[in-house]
Structure formats: structure tokens, C-alpha cells
Known about the structure:
The protein has 238 residues and is an alpha/beta fold. It has helices at 28-35, 55-64, 75-87, 142-152, 168-177, 228-236, and strands at residues 9-11, 16-18, 46-49, 68-72, 94-98, 113-118, 153-164, 180-189, 198-205, 212-213, 217-218.
Amino acid sequence: MRNTTDRPFDFFRGKIKLYQPPEHRVSVDLVLFLSRIRGVKRSSRVIDLGAGFGFLSIAIAKKYKVPVVALELDRRMLELLKKNVELNELSHLITVVEGDVRKVDEIFKKGSFDVVITNPPFFPPNFTKNPNPYHFETRGTLKDFIKAGGYLLRDGGYMNLLIPSFRLYESFLVMGESKVYPRFLSLVYPTEEKRARLGIVTGIKNVGGGLECDKPLIINKKTGEYTEEVRNLLESFL
């Protein structure tokens, strides 16, 4: 198999180009996540926790023209992240920071961001004997990412989180402990016949209220083709 870091891949009709490793590539889930991110304004200061090779940071900076801090710990991902920021000519908007979500209080002041976006590792390490470090909690748990976001957000700031649906209850509990109260929920379904696989959650720091549930996001038709909504997002997000 050809290594996907050999050349950049085009996304959004070539508006974004990315080098990505074969074991951690952009999926349609991330595009759906982008479509449900809330709270970003021209004046916002945004941080991407566990930025990986930069897809979310670059897409947000490109669409909203806002400064984004991309926090990443893994050395390999940091190299690709820096390369992708330069490739997309976004060095003036994206600041790459090497750091651990478990130690954000050593890097940033409390309440210094308006928006947190994060796609943390989905699975606890005991799900498999040989966990992929980019998909499993080998360097930080879901709780670590949510607590970091709670520390970094100002009052009224927005946390946007993409997680597997079986961890929704856990995430709501930890968000409540961090005083980031869940306010919006979107469920992602592989097809309309199958159960929800992912949840997109937005919480607001120190602002309570009811939880609003969006209409379902369905990825594929019965034929295996993308639904109209997904195709439109792939075409028109940028």
C-alpha cells in the first residue's frame, strides 16, 4: 500500500490539501463534525485539542478566517501538522503548539479561548490488544480532553466534541463536572436502518439550559452512495 504521506490529497475540490498517514486519515465523519461546529465568529479564539495532522484546524481557519491554536503531542503528527499549515498558506492564522492535553494549565491561561474543538481518541485501550495510538486512549482519555476544554474556555464559550455514541452518557457527566453543559446534540447514522454510531455534542461553559437535538445525520443510502446532505456538505462546506 502506498504511504499517504507521499503526496498531499485534495479536499473540498482542492481548497484544502493535506498530507495524511495511512493509519489516520480524513473520514466523512469529520466533515459532518465541521458542519455542526458552533460558536465560531470572526472575533473568536479557537483551539483544536489533539489536532493531529490538522484537518479540523485548517478547515476552520480557512472557512471562518479566525486564529486557531492547534495543540498536538505526537511528534509524527506535529511534523505533518506543520507541513500542512504551510502547504495551505495558513501560518498567519494557525499556531502549532506541542503539548499534552493533560497539562494545558502549564501552557495556557484559564479561560483564554472562545471555542474548543476536539475529536479525541474514540476507544479505551482495553478494546484491543494492539491499540492504534490515534484511535485509542493511549495518551489521554476522553475525560482528559473534556477537562482540558473546560479549563481553556471562557464563560459562555463553546466546546465542540465528536465521540462514539456509546460514550455520550460518559461525556455528558464529565462535561457537567467541568461546568460545560451540553446544549446541542447531533447523532450520526451509517444508514437510516442502522443505529447511531457517532455523536456531535456542543456544550457551553457555565451556561445551562435544555438540550436541543438536531435531525439525524445519515451518511449513506441503501445503495451505498452518500445521501444528498452529505454530498452537499462535501461540495459546499468551503
